[in-house]
Write a structure and sequence with these properties.
three-stranded antiparallel beta sheet; 2 domains; 8 strands; alpha/beta; five-stranded mixed beta sheet; single chain
């Protein structure tokens, strides 16, 4: 577990980074060689160790080739921001805790969520998996040009979604969820919920032959045709769980996924409206926290370890 005292000290921050990134020995991020020579410290961050690879002759440091390199804020500020994000504080609350401008904090949290979004690598689901969908109200907050293109005035009050199921175009995007019982969660924002939209996601993340539980929404009608076992509960008839084999255990249900939606709504509530442009990054962060099953100080090392993985794309 990472102690808070380690987060507020730059030297200890970099010690933790080195321990998480190179638990055995330092490895060159360019060629993978272990033939490394230390080359002093960074000119502006005195605890940031620099190295030279004897194999490829290239220089690198503790944060090279990770999403955390190339930022002017000290590492301890980024780690404290990440810690507060794990506690699900709003940007305003984080700005107050770190004594920073709220706009700066918003930029930092946006980049950190985008890093998590880019680094996510869901494992295939198997065994028993539940599918369900939820619809969240998400307009174009902070994007006045898009609002103008839609031909309407910007709103002062909270955006209210239309009744019933929505789409991305109606500013009520569907969130499609897949969760393996006693396993991982995968959630994605979709433009709409149709068979042709969900099929690529299902075939990408769920192994063929998996037993899938859903409600009776007709978008799931072809699951057997796509190579999966399929059982349903009929919510419209008041059925929420069914004991098919009469062993006293009601195994046919989607209650696990329904519980996730309740947690997700609570997680998003402190942020007071999220644009659909940024919603996927919030979903990815929630997904990671849910799958790690850690909170508070115990969550921070897992988040940091994810961000220390090699980054193939630049942060925009």
């Amino acid at each position: 577990m990472l102690k808070i005292q380690e987060v507020v000290d730059d030297a200890k921050c970099y010690e933790r980074v080195r321990a998480l990134r190179w638990p055995v020995r330092v490895t060159c991020p360019h060629c993978g060689s272990h033939k490394i020579k230390k080359r002093g410290f960074h000119s502006r961050q005195r605890s940031r160790q620099r190295y030279r690879c004897r194999q490829c002759k290239k220089h690198f440091d503790d944060l090279s080739k990770t999403p955390l390199e190339g930022h002017h804020q000290p590492l301890k500020v980024w780690l404290l921001c990440l810690y507060f994000m794990g506690l699900n504080l709003s940007n305003r609350q984080i700005a107050q805790e770190l004594e920073l401008n709220q706009a700066d904090v918003q930029e930092m949290t946006s980049e950190l969520r985008q890093m998590v979004y880019m680094q996510r690598n869901p494992q295939p689901l198997t065994g028993e998996v539940e599918f369900d969908e939820v619809y969240l109200v998400a307009g174009h907050k902070g994007h006045p040009a898009i609002v103008q293109e839609l031909g309407r005035e910007g709103r002062r009050n909270r955006l209210k979604g239309a009744r019933g199921r929505g789409t991305l175009a109606t500013e009520k995007p569907p969130i499609f969820g897949m969760i393996q019982r006693t396993g991982e969660l995968i959630i994605h924002m979709l433009p709409n919920v149709q068979q042709q939209t969900i099929q690529p996601l299902i075939q990408r993340y769920v192994q063929p032959g998996t037993l899938i539980y859903t409600d009776e929404y007709n978008i799931y009608a072809r699951l057997v045709q796509w190579g999966y076992a399929h059982k349903t509960v009929n919510h419209s008839q008041g059925e929420y769980a069914r004991d098919e084999d009469e062993d006293g255990f009601y195994e046919v249900h989607t209650n696990t996924m329904e519980g996730v939606w309740s947690l997700l709504r609570s997680w998003l509530r402190p942020h007071r409206g999220i644009s659909q442009e940024k919603l996927p990054c919030y979903l990815a962060f929630f997904e990671f926290v849910h799958n790690v099953r850690k909170r508070g100080k115990a969550l921070l090392p897992s988040l940091l370890q994810l961000l220390l993985l090699p980054c193939s794309q630049p942060i925009s």
